[in-house]
Amino acid sequence: MSKMAQTPQPPYYAVIFTSERTEGDRGYGTMADKMVELASAQPGFLGVESSSRDEDGLGITVSYWESLDAIKNWKEHSLHRVAQDTGKSTWYSRYRLRVCKVERDSFFEM
């Protein structure tokens, strides 16, 4: 089974979350799993791809959404807000969030 998200034909949207973590887990792993589970149940969610953190602690997660409204609704979800606030106060030394419109994609599989 592929770890790549199965997305529809464009256009759709990608939210790219790049982060550097602070030391220690402090509940991060449990919350990250919960956020993927919760996001997956949201209207307009299309999929998610996440990399392992590199040796410098950089991690990248890309979630895919049908619309900007779906992204906005996810951003405002009450439990997601708790995760955002805890991320700022506890889990991340810094992060960057980018929202992009996907206008073209291609796929290769051997």
TrEMBL record:
Q: Does the keyword Oxidoreductase apply?
A: yes
Asked whether the UniProt record includes Oxidoreductase among its keywords, one would answer yes
Q: PROSITE patterns annotated for this entry?
A: ABM
Q: Per the database record, which ranges form the ABM domain?
A: 12-99
Top-level division of the source organism's lineage = Bacteria
The record's section on Gene3D superfamilies has: 3.30.70.100
Q: Which UniProt keywords apply?
A: Monooxygenase, Oxidoreductase
Q: Which GO terms describe its molecular function?
A: monooxygenase activity
Q: Which Pfam families match?
A: ABM
Give the signal peptide range. Answer: none
PANTHER family, sorted: ABM DOMAIN-CONTAINING PROTEIN, BLL5343 PROTEIN
What is this protein's record name? Heme-degrading monooxygenase HmoA
The species this protein was found in: Paenibacillus cellulosilyticus
Q: What is the lineage of its organism?
A: Bacteria, Bacillati, Bacillota, Bacilli, Bacillales
